[in-house]
Amino acid sequence: MSSSSDALLQALLALNRVQAQELLAQARAEYSPLEVIEILIRPALEELGQLWEGGDCALSQIYMSGRICEELLEELFGEALSDDLPETDGPPRLGIAVLEDYHLLGKQIVRTVLRAAGYRVHDYGRQDVDTLLEQVRADGIEVLLISTLMLPAALRVRTLIERLREVAPGVRVVVGGAPYRFDDQLWREVGADAVGLSAGDILPILERLGVKP
Ligand code: B12
């Protein structure tokens, strides 16, 4: 863990939003928004998860840290993160969702990267398998991006993909989120077409799949 992400971790544990904001501003002088996430925000949150697992911090600290980081993301990306951006029609049809999970930050970042690169993307928010299948089929989605942070949700992707192959065989699925980073074969095991270990990975993946903005 770098000293800057450790400083952010300390600010988050102390629920010191002002200090967290200052650290972010310092990092922005040197790095791009995506680099700030990878160097500062994600490592600090992952370490926080370790502390929680070891019984060394309270769930309220994780909860508040998540809220503070959501606000920091808004500062990093501004209105690109907004849910209110108009979506225009026309290919390519990308969909993004969090499956049966309340960890939304990763999805928000991936969606922002896509929009900044000029892709149109339907954001389905948090969904269960049945509802997501229904919507993907109805909207004619061609590439579905799934974000999960809980291992059970990451495993449920297998069910989603099996059923998707039956009702909409042409849809390609890209997965991402912590469980896929911990186990580098998990994406193959659930039957996905590709995995992204960080938000920035999505652009080369789409290029490989031949999907242009
Ligand atoms: C913040 C947090 C929360 C917040 C979430 C706030 C929010 N708005 O998202 C709150 C407080 C709600 C929460 C709740 C819980 N949490 Co929590 N949480 C975390 C924590 C600390 C950080 C997660 C995070 O936001 N990371 C930062 C984001 C930016 O990273 P990311 O999601 O990985 O995304 C990046 C990449 O993976 C990638 N990416 C992500 N998705 C995708 C998709 C595609 C297509 C691509 C290309 C890339 C990509 O891009 C992103 C940027 O690079 C993690 C610790 C950890 N190790 O991750 C635990 C963690 C995920 N939580 C955990 C648990 C257990 C819970 C709870 C069950 C706790 C409880 N007992 O109540 C609940 C249940 C929630 C549920 N049912 O979904 C466990 C999961 C264990 C497991 N393996 O299943 C973890 C790992 C903590 C731990 N070590 O135990 N949590």
UniProtKB/TrEMBL annotation:
One of its GO terms (biological process) is homocysteine metabolic process. SMART domains: B12-binding_2. One of its GO terms (cellular component) is cytosol. PROSITE patterns: B12_BINDING (PS51332), B12_BINDING_NTER (PS51337). The keyword Metal-binding applies. Residues 1-88 form the B12-binding N-terminal domain. InterPro entries: Cbl-bd_cap, Cobalamin-bd, Cobalamin-bd_sf, Met_Synthase/Corrinoid, Meth_synthase_dom. Keywords: Cobalt, Metal-binding. GO terms for molecular function: cobalamin binding; metal ion binding; methionine synthase activity. This is Cobalamin-binding protein. Residues 90-213 form the B12-binding domain.
